[in-house]
Amino acid sequence: MLLKFLPIFTTADILSVMKSIIKKRTWKAIYRLLDRVSPIDGDCGRLCGAACCTCGDAEKDGTEEDLGIYLYPGEHKIHNKKADWLCWTVEAAEDYEFPESWTGPVYFVKCKTPPVCPRSMRPFQCRTYPLSPYISEEGLLELVYNDEELPYECPLIEQQIPLNDDFVKATYTVWSHLIRDPLIYDLVEMDSRARDEAI
Question: What was the pLDDT predicted at 41?
């Protein structure tokens, strides 16, 4: 989900962030696992000029607003908010299309140096794209291609380029752990039902 990126950031927001059951060490393990896999052999950004990394900069591409991505509950624990390659903001979950269980602040980040970043610290959404989790009506976790309306086209989706099996398996594994967190489950469930309604 790409969201409008506005600079709002206070100490009170940091202290009242949503509580996740996913621990810092679990996020680190997820990052380590996903460091070992890639959607395709090589850098998929070479197919499209790193479109997903470089879009949404209002100053550079003439759009009305900057775009960034949100971090999942608890994911902020493994990032250094003083790192010079990320711009951080905090937004109220209630101002966006998040589940009702999401209350209070949500962390948003935007890369300051696209398409170059410390790959070992890429946010979770960057690591699992172009796949999205989907919970079926029967309650089963599946992976589907991300079908959100985005300001760019991904060749992996548009050309239906086969994804590496190890990438798909690792992505499924981490999602099966993450949806144990009620906050993350609620988000995946909400997105899944929205996807059903759109069909």
Answer: 93
